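Kindly inspect this chain:
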Amino acid sequence: MLQEPIFLKPVLQERIWGGTKLREEYGYEIPSETTGEAWVISAHPNGSSTVAGGEFAGKSLAQLWEDHGELFNKKTSGEYPLLVKILDAADDLSVQVHPDDRYAQEVEGEPYGKTECWYVLGAQEGANLILGHNAQDKSEFEKMVDDGEWEQLFRYVKVQKGDFVYVPSGTIHAIGRGITILEVQQSSDITYRVYDYDRRDKDGNTRELHLDRAKAVTNIPHEDVKLDFGTIEKDDMTIQQLVKEEYFTVEKWEIDGEAEHSISADFLQADVTEGHGSIEVAGQEYKLAKGVHFILPNGVKDIKFGGDMELIVSHP
């Protein structure tokens, strides 16, 4: 059994709405001034993270999942289940919706739909996002879409650093300008665009919309999901559960000093979002800092932390 963290190098993705925060805030070597996404823990075919060191250095996470299922206590032949990203929205993202598993499998031939959640890493004053819609039934929804009544249709929510948002499949949503988020999601890249502000790409073309499929998968009427989980404090560590749903559990761990912790999940994904410190696994210490991402594989049960840092931790 591997008794060490698996550190990962992110895959950087250019986007029409991206910016430079992934370089400025996290020190990543971005490919352009419009870099929107860092896929920091990913085994998806459109961008698989690679192992940064240790026994499996240079291998992709997809290869590890395929060839070393024991690292994850892998029980099925399916795809790696989750994907973690950091998104820098220098401009508004398109308004979009994602299908559930059944629709993704039957219509797209893909293994997973896309339920996701967002932890807000930063937000300029007054920043907001779109979450849900105001239509009361399917006919009203379709009429508002067909008539382009976007301001009346979309629900706007103000956010600030530290907020958490759960976005089940079928939820109309968009991240607004000036927001940086860490996203934990099912490992899916299926997006149906509903509205894109009539933007044009570098070649002067408007981006494709997917209105028929969006109408087919959108939850109507929209219902907010109520999340209310407790906080555990032990030693110099605070654990706040953010969501525990069908596809993933996500927690925020805050370390202020030294703490020991035992792991019961098959494996853990961890993203250092603030500060710096260290983790000790099997008597070996590893340095951690903002922008570092790693997996604690199956078999790692007891860990020790030191330092002053915040991590977002997730598992299937």
Q: What stands out?
A: The radius of gyration is 20 Å. Helices lie at 21-24, 61-67, 101-108, 138-146, 150-153, 211-217.
